[in-house]
Design goal:
156 residues; mainly alpha; two-stranded antiparallel ribbon; 67% helix
Length: 156
């Protein structure tokens, strides 16, 4: 009976096994993730990384799943999320599905913070464009809103 459906299940099951298979040394994981070996060791030590597999000699072996986790952590760092919050997130993931509401709220809060930063950066680009236009002698330049009500203490 096998058929296509069983082949798909078998294939996806194999992909899951391959994703979990410890196959990269710490050097290879560092190269693939863009992080240093010391950072990878530190992430493991502080609980940001789940259990890292070991080979017969006791050396760390990273899986594709570990590399995916490192990519997520990298994105969270880009958002400005603190290491403590990332560790808390990792703990919540390890605790299981009952923590999904708290994890969801963490991502919603982080998303709101990122959108606020993006807005602030857009306003900053508008100010920079305005100043560039002024210095290039463009007289039809319209002063951006970010300059019509400047922040206290900022010299323009």
């Amino acid at each position: 009976m096998g058929g296509v459906a069983s082949q798909v299940v078998s294939s996806s099951g194999q992909q899951a096994v391959d994703r979990e298979k410890p196959q990269y040394s710490i050097g290879e994981a560092a190269d693939r993730s863009g992080l240093s070996r010391d950072t990878l060791r530190w992430y493991e030590r502080i609980g940001l990384m789940n259990y890292i597999g070991r080979d017969h000699a006791g050396k760390r072996r990273f899986s594709n799943r570990d590399l995916e986790w490192l990519a997520l952590i990298g994105r969270l760092r880009t958002t400005g999320m603190s290491v403590a919050d990332m560790v808390r997130y990792a703990e919540l993931v390890r605790e299981g599905e009952s923590t999904i509401p708290e994890r969801l709220q963490m991502f919603r809060d982080t998303r709101a913070e990122v959108l606020a930063k993006i807005d602030e950066l857009r306003q900053t680009v508008a100010v920079l464009d305005y100043k560039i236009d002024l210095y290039e002698g463009k007289t039809s330049t319209v002063k951006p809103a970010a300059l019509t009500a400047p922040c206290e203490g900022i010299k323009i």
